[in-house]
């Protein structure tokens, strides 16, 4: 019985390590969002499957008997397809979905349904730090009156698409002190994040709170109607129950 682990998060890395220790048959899959991902301790494939039918074919050829989805909460297209095809193929499927971030005392958050709504809250002339990834950068085109900095893991392969911004290369994790120093150095007025959840990425939110910065928080997309767990331990328990 081989498990497909849809990876790309810290939780997926910890699951892979635990399964490798026990010798559980597993194949991890990375979407290829970063050019040089840290190696996982299990057999790993990198890149998309090429659509529904190639995914179905691959599942059969690889002898996949269950799917554990530990992708990013905003990788909704991957999760929706995996859940749907697992249901069609009658394969057990479970989504590891870490809890959302929620505002605490001192936070100055506004919630957005999509990136393009940021312009409704962020004033012209603001210096904005985008911690949202390069995939959705085009949706911030309407922030043309602001100064934009977008952080990404990989060095950029092309110039920033807008005249009013730049890329900043950095690989997490970042401490609260690191984030505070960076936001202060860049004279940031607004932080924009996706509500990914998780403890390590929370450091930028704590830094914003301590600096009194407003934060635009993009709500998560709709998740699959499928079994869900919230922690690595719960996910491993699900695997053990198969």
UniProtKB/TrEMBL annotation:
Top-rank lineage group of the source organism: Bacteria
InterPro entries registered for this protein in UniProt: Precorrin-6x_reduct (IPR003723)
Keyword Oxidoreductase: yes
Keyword NAD listed: no
Pfam families: CbiJ
Pathway: Cofactor biosynthesis; adenosylcobalamin biosynthesis
Protein name as annotated: Precorrin-6A/cobalt-precorrin-6A reductase
Keywords: Cobalamin biosynthesis, Oxidoreductase
